[in-house]
Specification:
The protein has about 80 residues and is mostly helical. The radius of gyration is 12 Å and the shape is globular. The relative contact order is 0.18.
Length: about 80
């Protein structure tokens, strides 16, 4: 089965994650070393990121999935 890819949504998710990371003064390398998630690939919108990965990143940034997607929904 082919995987669906919504580039506009992926770009919004990428920007949201980058904002969260930068607000906390974290490097991509630090996030990678602590979570083993290659956030750099996600932040450029090249990866069709899973909800599980977004959930793990939200835990790391200490926000809920609702808080994460609220910022995306209004701009999507």
């Amino acid at each position: 089965m082919a995987q669906f890819r919504d580039q506009k949504l992926l770009d919004k998710i990428a920007a949201r994650l980058k904002d969260l990371r930068e607000e906390r003064g974290l490097s991509q390398e630090k996030v990678y070393n602590e979570l083993d998630i290659h956030i750099a690939r996600i932040e450029v919108g090249k990866v069709n990121v899973s909800v599980s990965t977004i959930s793990r990143l939200c835990e790391y940034f200490d926000i809920t999935l609702t808080e994460f997607f609220e910022k995306i929904d209004g701009n999507y």
